[in-house]
Amino acid sequence: MEEWLEQVWFIPAETKPNSVGIIISCGIHGNETGPIVACNALLDLVRSKQLIPAVSLLLIFGNPQAINAKQRYLDFNLNRLFGNSTAGGTEAQRARQLEQACHRLQQQCGRIRWHLDLHSTIKPSRIERFALTPVTRGEYQLQWRPLLYAGGFRGLVRQTRRANTFSQYTHDHFGTDSFTLECGSLLQPTNQGDNALLEWLVAMVTEPSALASEHQDAPLQEFRVAEDIIRHSDQFQFMIDEQEPNFSPHPKGSLIYSDRDGPFYTSEQRYSLFLNSRVEVGQRAGLLLERIQ
Ligand SMILES: [Zn+2]
């Protein structure tokens, strides 16, 4: 096991160290404790040789300074800084380092099969655990539905607008099967520790094929992003309860927000996700989803 950077661990597979690599990341937002605790436990299992990954693993604690400070971030949201080399500040520097670590894994292993970037939602969700894909080119290599289902993930959100997230970066640069995984809310007990998540991660790095065969019938609710809600001015305000849980439904014709260009009504039934009006002008204040399955 090698520490390539502060809190970035390369754990070679015992048998075929150079065949293929995988990435698990957590703590891109420093206050999302549940996945950080699970990944620390995973690292302890590796250290004590109770766990040897089937393929080489890069285990990343995304933002150590924010993790120590128990804050979402210090200067800027790290998950908006990947693939954007002109940004400055603590998080921008870290994004460059993490990108380089991924390139090093690619050079060492030849191919990166998958990347799971673990997060917690700020608010509770009607679907407690769910996965998001970045904007993808083509289908993923693995059959992910049974694998995600085995981890308790019951929703899948396909993003339609490119953002400078870590999962978008790894998918774009390495053709990796990449997900942002929302593993529960900051308000739930799982944010203090999450044994179910740990057990799933252990299975994913050792024998994922067993998980896949157990959960062939994996009924995930599937959505695609219909609208990005962008805060265009200081006049922006939600006209629905911003504190509602993620995936709250809004029928066709609902008034969702108003901004300098006037009110916004839904053209079809939509589901809200990540509502947060306290973002900078020009940043995303939420998503509206359409159900596709
Ligand atoms: Zn997060």
Q: How is this structure best summarized?
A:
The chain is 26% helix and 28% strand. It is α/β, with parallel strands linked by helices and 293 residues long.
Strand order in the largest sheet: 1-2-4-3-5-8-6-7-9-15-14-11
Number of domains: 2
Task: Find the structural class using helix and strand composition.
Answer: alpha/beta
Oligomer: single chain
By CATH's scheme, which homologous superfamily of the largest domain applies? Zn peptidases
Q: What's the architecture of the largest domain in CATH terms?
A: 3-Layer(aba) Sandwich
Elements, N to C (H/E): EEEHEHHEEHEHEHHEEEEEEE
Number of E strands:
15
What does this structure look like?
The protein is an alpha/beta fold. It folds into two domains: 2-214, Zn peptidases (Aminopeptidase), CATH 3.40.630.10; 225-291, OB fold (Dihydrolipoamide Acetyltransferase, E2P), CATH 2.40.50. 26% of the residues lie in helices and 28% in strands. It has seven helices and 15 strands. It has a twelve-stranded mixed beta sheet with strand order 1-2-4-3-5-8-6-7-9-15-14-11, with helices on both faces. A hairpin with a 2-residue loop joins strand 1 and strand 2. The longest helix is centred in the middle third of the chain and has 20 residues, at 90-109. The radius of gyration is 19 Å and the shape is globular. 41% of the residues are buried. The model has no long low-confidence stretch (mean pLDDT 94). Bound molecules: zinc ion. Zinc ion binds at residues 28-29, 32, 119.
